[in-house]
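Researcher: Go.
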Amino acid sequence: MRPPYLLLDIDGVLIPFPDSDGSTPATHAHHDVVPTGRSAGDPVGVWLNPVHGPMLMDVIRTGLVTLVWCTSWRQDATTLIGPLLGLPPLPHVDLPRPRITTSHPNGYLWKRDHVDAWLGDVPAVWIDDDFTGLDHAWATERTTRGSATLLIQPDPRAGLQAEHLTEVRTWAERLPAVRTVAPAAPGGIEAA
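Model: Structure:
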C-alpha cells in the first residue's frame, strides 16, 4: 500500500493572512518572489516561517506520508516557496485556474472536485485554511468508503503550527501499514 498523501496549501497555511492592522506573525520573514506570469519588476511579498521547512522535512523523513503541494501557486510552490523553506522539489496537484469570485462556488472549496478525482481511492490528509462543512462531510464519506481522509484547517492568520503536523503523524501512524518507498505518481500529478 502506498503512503497517504499530505496535501499542503500555501496561502493561509504557510503564508498567513495579515491581521486587520496589516501585521503578520513575528515568526515569519518577508520575501519577494516573482510568480509565473509576473515580471521581475512586479514581485509578490510573502511571509514565511523558517521553522516550517524543518518541521515539514521531519514529516517527510518518516515515510508515513508523501507531501504534495495543493495550492493555486501550482508549480511555483516548488520553484519559489519550497526553496525558501529548504524543501526539496515536490510534486503538485495540477489545479485549473477557475474564473470564480468565491473560493466556495458550490458551497465547498473549489479545489475539492479536482482533488477528489486526483486522489482516487488513496488515503490523504489535507491541510488548507478554507474548508467548509461540506468539505468535512466529503472527508467523512471518503473515510467511510475506505479511503481514510483527514482535513486540518489552520487559522489563516496564524498558519501551520507544530500541533497540525503532530496530528498528521498520529493519523498516519494509525492507518494500516504503509510502504515507506516513494509511490509512483498518479495521473494528473506534476512532478517538480
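Model: The first strand starts at residue 5 and ends at 8.
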